[in-house]
Amino acid sequence: xxxxxxxxxxxxxxMIAGVMGGIAEYVxxxxxWVRLLFVIISSLSAAVPGILIYIVLWIVMPKAGNExxx
Length: 70
Description:
The chain is mainly α. It has helices at 19-27, 31-44, 50-60. It is built from three helices and no strands.
């Protein structure tokens, strides 16, 4: 698995927009575990819905390009 040099949305581990895949590649974790952790934390949080956080990350995080991977 290639590691991202900076935080970007993933091109390789993309289910919806590549947000969780990009975070997983950046920290060196499995995308499955990052997605599960996100769902669990979102389910337990009543203050800020997870879908809102995901949409904000989708807008803010740039899409990974060839130069994004080391």
